[in-house]
Design goal:
Layout lengths: L2 E4 L1 E4 L2 E8 L17 H26 L1 H14 L2 H12 L4 H17 L2 H5 L2 H16 L13 E5 L4 H4 L7 E6 L7 H9 L3 E3 L12 E5 L4 E4 L3 H19 L15 E5 L5 H6 L4 E6 L14 H13 L5 E5 L27 H6 L1 H15 L5 E6 L5 H13 L5 E6 L2 H5 L1 H4 L5 E4 L1 H9 L17 H16 L3 E4 L7 H10 L3 E4 L4 H8 L4 H12 L4 H12 L3
Parallel strand pairs: 3-4, 4-5, 5-6, 9-10, 9-16, 10-11, 11-12, 12-13, 13-14, 14-15, 15-16
Antiparallel strand pairs: 1-8, 2-6, 3-7, 7-8
Helix pairs in contact: 1-2, 1-3, 1-6, 2-6, 3-4, 4-6, 11-13, 19-20, 19-21, 21-22
The protein binds phosphoenolpyruvate (PEP) and magnesium ion.
GO cellular component, one term: cytoplasm
Protein name: Phosphoenolpyruvate-protein phosphotransferase
Organism: Streptomyces alanosinicus
Amino acid sequence: METTLRGVGVSHGVAIGEVRHMGTAVLEPPAKSIPAEEAEREQGRARQAVDAVAADLMARGNLAGGEAQAVLEAQAMMAQDPELMADVDRRIVVGSTAERAVYDAFAAYRELLAGAGEYLAGRVADLDDVRNRIVARLLGVPMPGVPDSDQPYVLVARDLAPADTALLDPSLVLGFVTEEGGPTSHSAILARALGVPAVVALPGAGELAEGTVIAVDGSTGDIFVNPGEAKKAELRAAAAERKAALAASTGPGATADGHKVPLLANVGGPADVPAAVEAGAEGVGLFRTEFLFLDDSKNAPSEHKQVEAYRQVLEAFPEGRVVVRVLDAGADKPLDFLTPADEPNPALGVRGLRTLLDHPEVLRTQLTALAKAAEGLPVYLEVMAPMVADRTDARAFADACREAGLRAKFGAMVEIPSAALRARSILQEVEFLSLGTNDLAQYTFAADRQVGAVSRLQDPWQPALLDLVALSAEAAKAEGKSCGVCGEAASDPLLACVLTGLGVTSLSMGSASIPYVRAALAKYTLAQCERAAAAARAADSAEEARGAAQAVLSGE
Ligand code: PEP
Ligand code: MG
């Protein structure tokens, strides 16, 4: 039967496909005791699960080839290690279930590895993954992590962390649905980067049965469960119509009367560059460098590796602008070797620039790598710091840039209300501002961006957020400097017009949104955008603000 659910649409387009759940961490199997006559059967179950997991790892290794193959084959061998299997058998004989025996035998082996020197300790994560796979198989629950599927699917998850999403194969993911997360969560950001439709904050997403066909409308937030042929055809036709209208829009971003608003791309690394170029991005407005740091949980990437990655992005935009954000670790983007594990409120703790000031060697390596990457290129490099709270922060960052010999513009992200309130003071130290509206909303409304239940307060149309945007843009204008937006607010076509009316000087977004924003801006004059902005700021809620701006722009 066709049913409809409603979440928050965060990435345009329609996806129709089967549900595949992101496997969650494997729970500890209960320590119940089995009668002796069941031991043989349990040993058979354990052996079967181990063999199936090993075969699956080998098959995936064959498909992947290269370095990944070596890692997967080593994992398959771990699974079938004779001593481990003997331990599993022993534990079953004394009364464990197969899943509990596997769990405990791996735990014992894990301890041995963890204490056996750095190299073997580094294999603990691989061992845990093998254990989780075997236990999941025995319990009949989805494999942990990204689904193993060679057919395209709609990914359903509680929420997605950057570390999970780095492993996704974009050619297989038709769209995302998450139970948690708001419009600025990483699931939403990643969906826009991949250009796939997404709906977040959908209560009950976890209960959608594996394999059910759903249609995801990322524009409206509607999810149609078991859609009929008529509904599928209707959704596909509407999506095709929107796409055709967009294809007609090209060229640099500007209002109808020629006020230029450069449209820039948000990227996570060189892999996102082709889509940015194809969408006609005029440069990069936010290079989230965190993704380079996810491969190794213990160390920062070497200077050499960083130079390579930065250079690839810089080379893609000759004569263009590329704004690189230095590492933003902590809170929703934790890194084991930098982020304190015991903070009661990680979003209010040591994250972003605070982390870098505590680890000056990481910042120095990053800035030196950027200086080397930009050498000899005609690109306009700009470097900015996340989570700048005040002028002291801004000065510390600018000093570090100068010490690294970086020939670039230095900027500060406005993500904390204090930075918007004292933007002129911060601009005494840096040359530009970039509004991170995702975090700015989180900190203005005390609403965690990862919690679906407070997504109402994460809405970037909130008039209080618009006030802070206006304050920052006015300060930059008074100082003769620029103030862009690189948070997700910039990717909403109507809001992009309002932000322009508030005085922001560039808009940076996931590449897939650029054509939508370009088309919207081209329809209105700067004066119309300013009137829409004033109407939105005069409203008392996000919904009213959106309605008021819409009414002004459609001439109602
Ligand atoms: C923001 O907070 O708006 C932003 C652009 O940074 P991130 O989403 O990576 O925290
Ligand atoms: Mg941020």
